[in-house]
Amino acid sequence: MRLLPAVIALVFLVGCTQSIETQNEIAQTDSQSSKAPGPQAENGDSAKQESGEASEKDGVDLSPEAPLSEVQDSDESAAEASKGVEVTRGLIEVSLFHGGVDREALLYVPETYDHLNGAPLMLNFHGFSLDANTQLQLADMRSLADRDGFLLAYPQGTELGGYPFWNALPGSEDKNKSSVDDLGFVRDLIAQIESSYPLDRSRIYASGFSNGGMMAYALACYERDLVAAVGVVSGQLLDGENCAPESPTAVIKLHGTNDRVLPYNGAYGQLSVQDAIDFWVTHNETATSPQVEVFTQGGTTIERQIYGGGKNGVAVEHYKYLEGEHDWFRQRVEGLDASELLWNFVSRYSSEGLLAGG
Prior knowledge:
By secondary structure, this protein is an alpha/beta fold. It has one domain (about 5-355): Rossmann fold (3-Layer(aba) Sandwich), CATH 3.40.50.1820. The protein is about 30% helix and about 25% strand. The strands form three sheets. The protein has a ten-stranded mixed β-sheet with strand order 1-2-4-3-7-8-9-12-11-10, with helices on both faces. A two-stranded antiparallel ribbon has the order 5-6. Strand 5 and strand 6 (about 165) form a beta hairpin. Helix 1 packs across helix 2 (about 20-35). It is globular. Mean pLDDT is about 80; it is low at about 1-30 and about 35-80.
């Protein structure tokens, strides 16, 4: 990834003025980072091509004619679903109207989903210039959902300058160049999902890549106790002053030291990765000195830092990919890739803190 377009991408996200031509260059740069083969993305095909192939192979209907609102009768409630009404499973397109805009998301309902008792929900947000389909391929957690029975949602951002984007800094249109109520959209999305698929509200999690990681942080910062834990890959905390979670929030953060889009040591007024870690360590009242372990996989050295002993049993974990770039990492740590690391960490927590046996 070249330095110039990567730096320009960062400038765009923190609010400096630039032209549509520059935004085109950013989109091309970020899209390139999304094309590395994922769990179901091989043979060098583009992410969108892979999405179509996966859909055809799995018998998935991604067409606009199959929104979640039409999957079940409009008058069906979560209570009725819990009485044993059969629910549709697989990959479903969700559509809703919020803030005067038609919004969308992809929802995966595994065969192991327990509609009688509800289930956890994992939200997974795409990066700037990417989309929900691309994020599904980049960070495919469906096999984990199949294994553990949780619901998995990939929301779609609105366009800013012609490219999908998340407004992760509400009330700061001068910085983010957007007044879109993405936090409200996520609340409404969760409510719509829950109307057909009962949830365990104490176990809603947020994760994301790059700008999507910023969105995951924003939910923890500004939405009170909506999410129990967050996982951020190559994303950054935008606001350490006004971020004010009401409860301890478990956080796992993965970042490469050679990230030129969102530099590890911060740039252009942004927080560094360590600044963000320090914020959550302080908020969660964890140990201030981490336990450190070092792993090597595929020629990459990965340093795991664990800040344990936090309030309500929460922890902060940081995976530092030495010489790693702006990526959703596939190098494995103890056999686990980025998606598995995130889910295995966040799923140990509820809004009350560490789960029994976590």
